[in-house]
Write the structure tokens for this entry.
Amino acid sequence: MSEVQSNISNIKNFKVYKWNFTCYRCHAEIPVASYYFYHEHFHAIGDAQKLDVELKNIYPFIEEKYDKTLGKDIITNYCLLCGLIIDNMFIAQKVGRELISKDLQNFEDTSILNYLTLKDLNTNFYEQYGLDSRQANALRDIEKILGFRLFPAKHITNYLPRIMITGDHLVSLGLSKCNLHSVPESICNLIYLKKLNLSWNRIKSIPKCLKKLENLEVLDISRNPLFPFPEVITLLSSLKELRLHITSIRKVPNLIGNLTSLKKLYISGFAIRKIPDSIGNLKSLEELRLKPSRLRTLPESISNLKSLKKFEFDYNETMDIPESVLLLYKKLQKPKPKRLIKLKKIYSDDVEVRFIKIDPKLRFIDNTKIQRDPKLFKDNNKIQREETHKWEWEDTKWERLNEDIVFPYDEIYVIPSVEANKSLNDPPPKWLHIKRKGGIRVKDLKEAYYNKLPDYGDYHFFESFEYMYDYNDVPVYYLFIGS
């Protein structure tokens, strides 16, 4: 790194940290750097313009780049090998979740002088998007718990912390898998919120003031140790979609019948043993999924749900099911068409491609599962054999210098990342299944991706392709599709 020849003026406890980061695209260990401090809300690279310019001059891996998600140029870390932008959100998360636990002092770049003034800080980050002070301060309260900033995005994914802003209103907040132990009451100031995802956290209670969110239409509080049942959610009169997968609660209260605007209701959890009769009051319900594993009966009132178009539950012959409910269930089961799938052939007559449904349990498979399941194993020799099959990159487009390069397999599966990241409540994921005698060519892969995968909206850039494991002796690859 070049010597620092300029000063950055005075704020206490300000430091710059430098560490190694694994590139999401080429998987190389690359250097990154950022400041990290708290003043009204968390700061990481991209927040203090004066300092950003200094770091850009100091570090060759920090440049001004165009960010597709934000739709503007930003100062950011990037990979010197493949050019991938390292999202500033991930940088802040890395510091807040990992480096702090390893002692930040170990990562301090002591050659950077400790100077900065208050006027250099971007303290009105959320206000610049048009949010009023109540909404902005609520997000800052959440940040204090999370330890990182919530970046605006065009699309809210299931698992990435994100916010969505329309006009001057915060309309969507995604806080799934954030290790949240509590929800600050200031969240109730987000009165324009339409979608709230609090799933996969450690939340034990929901603030009673949540009833103020009169515009809330979608709520997911699954996978939290909630107890007792948060009855405040039964006061959300505008709610159209509710997801409840709660293992700590045995009974769903009768008050659930107050949610007469509901169109989608998903209830699961092995402790739940009874569904209340009041569920028959949900006259607007179009989709009902009941998956409690200990459920032994269903209320007859379900047969009153005349708007129901989709009805799922773990049916078995030991259950006590009213005849009217069973008739409704059978009526709504769409028979699977008995037809042969016509394989689309690409480039030549000897290539077959199918987009197939797979076992919902086969999403991401960890090493423990690989070792335990005889159908799955990881072949480390594959990585060695494929060293000659390197991928070349040009901007965000996936390019190959020689499309006739052949992978040494006659058959492979490909997992699109968008399919792998589906929750258990979503439709079963799908894999690409590609076959060609003599080996799968690069051009066969690319043609299959572009012609066979569905439209994933903002997610349409093929950013990496990696061997994961074998399934039934067939190699399985992970295709990361970025935005």
User: Anything to note?
Assistant: The longest helix spans residues 133-146. The chain is about 15% helix and 25% strand. The chain has three domains: 16-120, 127-332, 351-482.
